[in-house]
Amino acid sequence: MPGAKHYENNLLNHSYCYTSYSKQEVSITTREDGDNKPKIHRTNIKSGLSNIVIPSVFLSRSNYNDIGDSFTQTFVKVANQYFGIDNNDILGRGVQKLKEKSLEIDVVSIQNHLIINANIRVYYDFINQLKNTDVLNHKSSYNDIKKFYDLLLYREIVNQEEQSKFGNVARSYGKLKSSMNVWLKQFIKENSPLYAIVCNDLSKDTDSVLKIVIEEALKEYKPIRNDEVLKKVKKYRTDLVFSILPEHAYSDNYELNMGIQKYALDKCYLNYTPDIEKTFIHYLESQESVDWWYKNADSGRRGIGNSI
């Protein structure tokens, strides 16, 4: 689920696939080796095996390389500093200070330029031919402006330099949008002109003032976010002790490997063994100095390594 949670509005709790393929050509597969699949194979630790006790650490994922909810506070502070706005300006000279920094706040719509009556005869020269065609100015609808607004903010996250970049764009651009709305709604109360103002400014590329604010806010926020992630890592750290369990159970996705002598369990069940692992297993089996080996889980609390 988006945001790893369910929403009160049930329409948000569904996923959809938009594709040009027909329904008969789309194959939906599900994972069949989940935790709920019946365990039909049983095996035990070998009698007399000297078990191990290894300190282990389980870390729940806490770093998604994304912008957090706390970004709004940083963005509002940086934006106000850039435009020279303090608390007394919010209801007073705030709008005037936006104008003084070249943010055009009188924009209420976005114009689309549509090419009409074009007659392209020679392909390699089509750019010059397009320049000589008629252009129809078309006022964008509110929905078009809103989509353009989302697209431009998404692009800003993508195009950041390393010192202000957050790699998880899908999880980040919504936070940037929310922060932009919170700050700008101090002066522009309605979404429609707000979106048009931002789109108009970000479309100016190097002449955009909001691009500067976004970059500075992301740059200032990055160490703040890093500290948040470190605190989460400490919070979700679990210290464990790893030992081979006395009993194991496997689903029918696992196959019995015959001829294995030094496995720590009395039967060796493996669900997928790449060629490189098979080669390593044969190597371990051939070594007189190896008393036993064990294929561990690949992930989760039991997954401290591939083999011991």
Describe the structure.
- The chain has 308 residues and is of the alpha+beta class.
- It contains eight helices and eight strands.
- The strands form four sheets. Strands 1-6 form a two-stranded antiparallel ribbon. Strands 2-5 form a two-stranded antiparallel sheet. A two-stranded antiparallel sheet has the order 3-4.
- Helix 1 (71-83) packs across helix 5 and helix 4 packs across helix 5 (169-184).
- It is elongated, with a radius of gyration of 30 Å.
Discrete helix count = 8
Assembly state (oligomeric):
single chain
Summarize the main sheet. 2 strands, antiparallel
Q: Give the CA-based shape.
A: elongated
Task: Give the proportion of residues in helices.
Answer: 25-40%
Overall mean pLDDT stands at: 80
Measured by DSSP, the beta-strand proportion falls in 5-15%
Structural class: alpha+beta
- Low-confidence segments: 303-307
Major sheet strand order: 1-6
- Write down how many β-strands occur, each being a DSSP E stretch of 2 or more residues: 8
Query: What is the gyration radius calculated from CA atoms?
Result: 30 Å
